[in-house]
Each structure stands twice: as C-alpha cells, then as structure tokens.
Amino acid sequence: MAKKVTMQQIANYLGVSKFVVSKALSGKGGVSEATKEKVIEAAAQLGYFAQRPSGKPPKQERMNAAVEGMKQSVLVLMPNIRFQTKESLYWGRILDGISAELNKRGIGMVILSEQNAEHLTGLINPDAIMGMIGVGEISSEMLLDIHRLGMTMVLVDHENDLLPLDSIFADNFEAVFRLTKQLLAMGKDNIMFAGDIQFSRSFYDRFLGYRAAIELTTGGSNRPDTVKLSNYGLNHSLLKLDGFETEHFIDSFRRWLKELPELPQAVICANDKIALGLLHVLKEKGIDVPQQVAVTGFDNIEDSYMSELPLTTVHVPKEMLGKNAVERLINRLQHPEEPIVKLLVKSDIIYRESTLLKVERST
What we know:
Shape: globular
Strand order of the largest sheet: 2-1-3-4-5-11
Oligomer: single chain
Number of strands: 12
CATH architecture of the largest domain: 3-Layer(aba) Sandwich
Helix content: 40-55%
C-alpha cells in the first residue's frame, strides 16, 4: 500500500510551513490566493486529493442504506451557470434520469444550483447526504469544499484536473469521429468545426474526434488535394464561438461568412444550439442547406427535429447519463477502494434533412 501523502510532505515540497499548507487546504483563509493555488496544485500533483479525506469518513449506515435502498438523500449539484438549469433541453433531461433512478431505489434527491463556494458548505449537512452527483461545470473550489466534507462524488459531463473522481460522459470523440468519416465518404472534403473547445471537456473531445478523422484521411499531411479544410489547413479549420444559446452565435456566423474565401461543404457544430444558429444565418443569406453546405449538431435536443429544417445530429442518451451516475455513486459507496472510472455512454448518429444522407441511424 502506498504511503499516505501528508501536509508536511506538501510543505517540504513547496518550502513552506505545515501551518501554511493546513490553512490553504482547509479553505478557511489565512493565506493569499496565490499561495493557496500553489498549495492546491502541489497537493494534486503529489496525490493528496486521491486519498480518502482525513476528516470523518462516511457513516457505514449511509453506505448500507445505499445498498439496501432505504430512504436517503443524494445531493445533485448543478450550478446555474451556462444555462445549466432544470428547464434546459439537455441538462434537464439528465436530471430526469437521475430523479427516476433515485426514485426507483427509494432515495431522495436534493438539488442545489448554488454558484458560490463560500455559501455551499453552509447548505450541506453531510450526515443527511449519502453522496453527491455533480452535473455540468462545477468549479474546483466547490469540489474541493465538498471533498473536505468527506462526501463521495460522481460527475456528469465534467471532470476535474485536481480531484480524481468517477465521471460519466457521452462517447463524444467516437461519435464525431464516425460522423466526420461519413461526411468525408460522401465527398465532403472541405469541412469545418464550429465551437469553443475550451467551453467544456465534451466540446474538446468532439473536436478531437473531428480532427482524428481528418488526420486519418490525410495521413497527417493536410494535403489540399486530399482534404481542403477550407483552404486553411487543419489548425485553422476551427471556428471559435462565444456564448451559450442559439441567438449568441448569430453575429459570429455572420462575420465568419463575410471573411471566408469560400463556403465549406460541411460544418460540424459542437452542439445543436450552435448548429441551429448556423442554419438561421445560412437561410438569412440565401445559402441552401444541404445542397451548398451540410450542417450537423450534437445532443439531439427537441429543437433539433422541430426546426424548419430538421438537423442531422448525435443523439445523446441524456436520461441514461443520469441513471448511470446514480449507479456509479452507489457502486462507489459500496466499493470505495476501486479504481476511478470514466464511463462513456454510446451515442447514435441521426441523419436528417440538414445533410444529404437519407438513412436514419448509424449502425
């Protein structure tokens, strides 16, 4: 068994006192923000957060209740940022999956949309909560505060560089890899990707799937006679966007169309809301979809098939993400020493009128 990483080891590593490390890791202040960040980064590098918290461990009866399905409560933390709300066509369906699975097991659910880490711990009674499921983006500061309480955590559509936690994602890379290869097979050799790859890990993985398919086709050479990539090359085939909702992307797409030397034959969008924004601008400019430009999205929200031009997209089993998060939390409570798991849920490609493909689903 590996030796436990102590605060003294972190202090020795940084050349500071154990008192400074203790203050920084306690979250109670007493040190500068710069020092706190250095201590937390060093602690993560040394594996301090990978250990069971030094505070009171989760009560055994809480674990037993999880196993036996007795009435308990799970905290679902979904900070109200980036439109992460129960009303969201994406995040709301994940919450539905969590709620249904917890209800089936006779476990209660407490939803928190708190954004301020300073207020968070005052709202949580660890003795009344068997564990936490985090949905969407959650700050490291908030996760560290919950970690200090000794609470078991599972994340959905998010992961953290500091804390090794179980996480649940759609198969973002693989789905876009397959989608890009299909577009290339159709003869779409001038393809762009639209989305901010720093927005989330999911967006980044989707871009990597697109890039991998392009590189596989070009043999890594980016030869213009093989794949044009909008005459820019792979590094410039990414259209970066800001915002969260469809209307946020309208102006960016208008500027982009003015600057392009030629239209791409296809645009792979990081999610459906981006794709719907692009469809709006293309219609506004009189550009035919899919004859001139094929457009694809990701997530399969309701708006993707209720729009005037139904959108080719990747169907994410959103309720299944929530269900699997509950199962993962229960398993982690039962087997706390098991290796950390990153679970990928398979997605399906749904072909609609925004591309020329006529089949309904990928095989």
